[in-house]
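Structure ticket #2291
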Amino acid sequence: MKIPTGQETISHAAPNGTVELAIRPAPFPGHPEIYSKKDIEKERELAEIDFYNGKTKEGFDIVLIPKTYSTSPGINIHSVKLPAGTSHLGYAATHTGKAHSSDDNVIAKYKQSIPTHFTYSPSILGYYHLSRFLDTGHVEPAIVRTMDVSAHKPLADLGKAKATGSNNRQQWTELRALDETHNNSKLYTEDGRQLYGALQANPTGEGSYPHLSDLSGAGAFAGSSEFAKVTNQNPLKLDYKDASGKLNQAAVQQIVQIRDLSDMVLMDFIMSQADRFSGNMHSQKIYVWIENGALKHKTKKSNPTKAAEQLKKIPPEAVVINRMIMKDNDAGLISGNSAKTNHLLEKISHMDSKTYNRLLDLQKELQKPEVAQWYQTELLFTPTDFKTVKDNVDQAVSILTARKDKGLFLDANESAALGAEDTPDQEAETTPESNNGAGTSVALISGSVGRWEKGARNLQADVETVQRLLQAAAQRLQAPELDPKGVDGKIARPPATSNTVAAIEAFQSRSNISIDGLTEPDSQTWQALIQAAGGT
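Resolution: structure written out below.
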């Protein structure tokens, strides 16, 4: 493997001194806005994980434990209260089972490409970024991570010894044998000293998707009552509210499930997924409600004590539903395409209009050379992998456009169905920030804001934060040149037409700061802007 350039790389030292790398891939070219602030935070949390001496921000110990209860030989990253005198490997040896205590949480999963099996790390990375472009499916952030071979060997030995099934034992045995030669380009870095793979955040509160997880094979899924609602050839007509105007839980669940399943089929079609329908369908419970005309949601806490405390802050009119999680995405691009083989996409009758339109946009983006290069340098795709995705997108567009208004209804949008404002899919804050009275309370920005050509990420939430600070500074300093002329979360292209860029540069000039048209986290411009706005 050639190491991706990435947008941020954090180094970690293995016990023998080998420098391991945690690499946050660059965002989809030209579209930094598709990633939420929470995505950026999760990516950074993943990059900060120290496999050997690490602790979580809550002070728990990081312990690596081989996954011994499924075919794929990955490593679970646990957050535990390590007993005094217990080594990391010693703890792992007694906790390889699927069940673990409430004080032992799986916070991430590390998987490499296994040449002899349906496990392919570029597929994990590809699903994450595809989900953000299409705004479909609940896929956790993932980054590229290397690991010292000598540090991996004892974990592979443990995996072999503790495997609960013959398939899992076989895969650990083969992986351990590969560690001896460490020369396979799909699994090791160019110097052969490290494995590489995808490190992905593990969702909290996940469980098997009711009923669907018990089905065996794509044929069983195609014949299920749940998929029958997606293929029903009549427009959706559901009573989403009762006579008193409250949300109808069953109807809300149905519209969310229809969108989840149509999104899943589309993504699996694009990514040539071979192993979705063998228990790899998951969900988590979320609260859903309408607040000030906008649809809000919040993931339900899995810990009973935390769930009881959370419930006190959830509006009484909220309903609880199951939302799909697409967490087992490692069997794409390498062996078969169950959605295509079983013609699942052709059977879909309901899809979110936003998903459909973004698919058309994706087809155009995949024609660009810089996008093809990005897939190969940042997401570790081979040229064949990229061609597979590109061809699948072309075919998906052909299938769906031919059926639009002829059996395909673009009506699976919960916001529109519930008569709510269509807002970005971000969790509602049930504990708003407090203002201590010492000035304007502001959030941190997760990326740079300003001139696109200088690499600014310009995430919507960050742009809005900077625009509000500029407005406050303009008023406080009676300097109209600092006014961005509105808060819309956007930076115009070209920058010469951007009032926000002009305001940033005017502020830098006024503050005797080097003028580059950028406001970056913890930079001199950022600190000065907070002070000028009277923020804390």
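Closing remark: The chain has a mean pLDDT of 88.
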